[in-house]
Every structure is written in C-alpha cells, then in structure tokens.
Amino acid sequence: MPPLLHKISPTEPGAATGPLVLADRAAYSIAAEQAEAVFALEDMAPSAQDKAITAAILAGKVSPEQAREELREYVIAHKSVAGFLESRSWGR
Fold first, then answer.
1. What is the pLDDT of residues 1-32, one digit of tens each?
2. Residue 28 in contact with residue 57, Cβ under 8 Å?
3. Contact 49/85 with Cβ under 8 angstroms?
4. What is the pLDDT of residues 58-77, one digit of tens each?
5. In this structure, how many other beta carbons lie within 10 angstroms of the beta carbon of residue 66?
6. Is the Cα torsion angle 28, 32, 33, 34 positive or negative in sign?
7. Is the pLDDT of residue 57 over 50?
8. Cβ count within 10 A of residue 49
9. Cβ–Cβ under 8 Å, residues 55 and 28
10. 4 lies in a domain?
11. Could you tell me the residue range of the domain that residue 58 belongs to?
C-alpha cells in the first residue's frame, strides 16, 4: 500500500493550523501505522509517549504541527523529552 501522507490536506506555510479534520485523521492514522511498520523491520518501536502524541493528534486534541513545535520548544528548554507529555493539557 502506498504512503497516504500526500492525502492529508496541505496547509500554507505560516498559516494557522488546527486539529486534523476527520478525513485527514484517517489518512494520518494509516500513515502512522505504515511508519511504525517500517521501524518495526529494524526492531524499533515507538515509545509510550510517541503513541500518546499520535493518539492525541488522532483524537483531534492537537494538530501535528502544534505537537511538533511544542515538543521542539520543550526539548530546547529542558534538554530532554522526559515530562513533555505530562506538561501538555492535550497529553493527559
């Protein structure tokens, strides 16, 4: 099956983003499963935090862009991902 990320509605650079619409959530879910399958071939598995972030995106609690930006900022500030999910209102 070909990757489905191209089926997710694109956003303009700098445009305000929000949670994925229902149709995009389905494509995102399949793309996430495909990515996990590729990593599994190399005996790599997503962490519990990775799975929780994906679940929050699929539940419409946060946009992929917002989650990515918040994680980047958190890592820069704390030099670790430990505690990131617990510090997010959408991660609980």
1. 444 444 455 555 555 567 888 888 888 899 99
2. yes
3. yes
4. 999 999 999 999 999 999 99
5. 17
6. positive
7. yes
8. 16
9. no
10. no
11. 21-91
Q: Which of 70, 66, 64 is nearest to 84 (CA)?
A: 70
pLDDT band at 92 (very low <50, low <70, confident <90, very high): confident
Structure tokens at 42: 């190399």
Number of domains in the chain: 1
Residue 26 domain-assigned? yes
pTM score above 0.70: yes
Residue 72 in any domain: the answer is yes
Q: What are phi and psi of 17, to 5 degrees?
A: -115, 155
d(CA 90, CA 68): 13
Let me know if residue 15 belongs to a domain.
no
